[in-house]
Amino acid sequence: MRPLARIILKMLSRPTMVLAMSGVMLLYTLLYLWLTGDIAGGGAGGWHTTFPAWERVFQSRGPFQFEPVGLISLGALVWTFSPINTLMAAGMGLLVGLNVVAGWWLWRSPRQCGLGGSSTGLLALVPAFLAGGACCAPLILIWLGLPIAGALAGVTPLLVPVALLLLVVGLWFSLQRLARESGLS
Amino acid sequence: MTPYILRYSSLSIVLSLVSMPLATASPPGQHPPEVPVAHAMASFRDAVRSGGPGKDGIPSIDRPRFQSADQATLNDGDKVIGVYHRGQARAYPQRILVWHEIVNDELGGDALSITYCPLTGTALGFKRGETEFGVSGKLVNSNLIMYDRATDSEWPQILGVAIDGPLANQGLEEFRVFWTTWGAWKTRHPETEVLTEETGFVRNYRRDPYGSYNPVTGYYAPDSRRLFPVMQSDDRFPPKTVIFGVRGPEGALAITRKALRNEGVVDVTLGERRYTIIHDSQLDTGWAFHNPEEVHIRSAELEFTADGVTGPGIASLEAVNGFEAMWFAWAAFYPDTYLYEGQEVP
């Protein structure tokens, strides 16, 4: 575990990496909240906040979905704010960000080591994006009006755990390869 | 012998005391139901699907608050579900009910549930007794399956009959609710109250997650596809075409809105029973009646008041519940439905 932690620290010691990871994390968090409906249109303009339902903070409204406690309206956007949904989105975003940065580093590393233009690191990004999007796939299908969305509704409880598992496993393999290539393992 | 008798009699008293709260808390029902049930109960149970959110994931409104019509911030074209019960009028905006689907309310001293399923475009009212209804999170034919909080029996909204649980095969008592617009409702009932957004939950009430009725877009568009499988599909109309549906002991009847609007009064005989459906042009809906004496009703002689339709012959009619529904859902629940598309022009 220690070499992997050292790799993460090494990654985070580079400002560009931190910036890239934060950017991906923020984008993913916003996208997740948009796709799950916490952030949506319908704002009446201006800035308005109200937090009338803190007692519902731990109340579930579906698989990995919690009741909003307040409403933040900014311009045309409305955010029905649930602290747990937001933490979950940010946590997944962090994992996607780390996967992306690790994958990008892997892609760059072989060339620096003179091993040729290996694209295996880049390939690691694919599961990261697939896993990140898995949680919201049924919603996208419902938007597209595809009848299979109904069939998928039954598997929604599995999607977030599956996405998390894929992201953790993907990150684990990327970090191990990075550790090997850096001679840290 | 005596101790046995004593033991059994005390046991039966205990059992009756235990079962009493269940019986009194259950929603008032009809056994057998007065509405048709076209599929076997087992087939309904097999066709149940998860809608995504869990039980009460779509929360019913159990402590509704109301405001006067002039305080409401609704546009005239906004869809509302209207109720007029014992001299009291209330409007439930569609944009609030799309997030909650059930309001457990009290009107004129009666405990009522006002229910709305966005996926089938159906609004129905049920008497709830001492219990409340909640959203089970399950669907059949895309239709909301409600559960009652006394017995946990499961009731598809359009069917109005429990398909699972201790009250299976029992029907609910319905009352008429109106699917109309805010402008039409407040003209008919200027003293109406309106459900407020203070529901106890935080939702984005300015946005409908499925589409829009003003103009009709997204999931509500007639040609758009349904999301969930149905027990029976019928392609005679685009899936989301709105029909006016009536149910009776002999079966179900669907009238196209075009036919109802054009003809004003529609007479249909189902089995031995004659039904008369009258178009209310202000609310743009139908009033359904059983017409046992086959009285001829003339559209031009009718008036529509807060209490309903009045005019020559109306007193001899018996009101029957009717409601608007998306065609695909009506045809799925009632595959043998009689369909009225208008008189054939020779």
Task: Give a description of the structure.
The complex is a heterodimer of chains A (185) and B (346). Chain A is of the alpha+beta class. Chain A has one domain. Chain A contains eight helices and six strands; from the N terminus they run ααββββββαααααα. Chain A has a four-stranded antiparallel β-sheet with strand order 1-6-5-2. In chain A, strands 3-4 form a two-stranded antiparallel ribbon. In chain A, strand 3 and strand 4 form a beta hairpin. In chain A, helix 1 crosses helix 8, helix 3 packs antiparallel against helix 5 and helix 3 packs parallel to helix 8. The longest helix of chain A is centred in the middle third of the chain and has 30 residues. About 3% of the residues of chain A have low confidence. By secondary structure, chain B is of the alpha+beta class. Chain B contains six helices and 27 strands. Chain B has a five-stranded mixed β-sheet with strand order 3-15-5-4-14. A four-stranded antiparallel β-sheet of chain B has the order 2-9-10-11. The longest helix of chain B has 24 residues. Chain B is globular. At the A-B interface, strand 3, strand 6 and helix 7 of A face strand 2 of B.
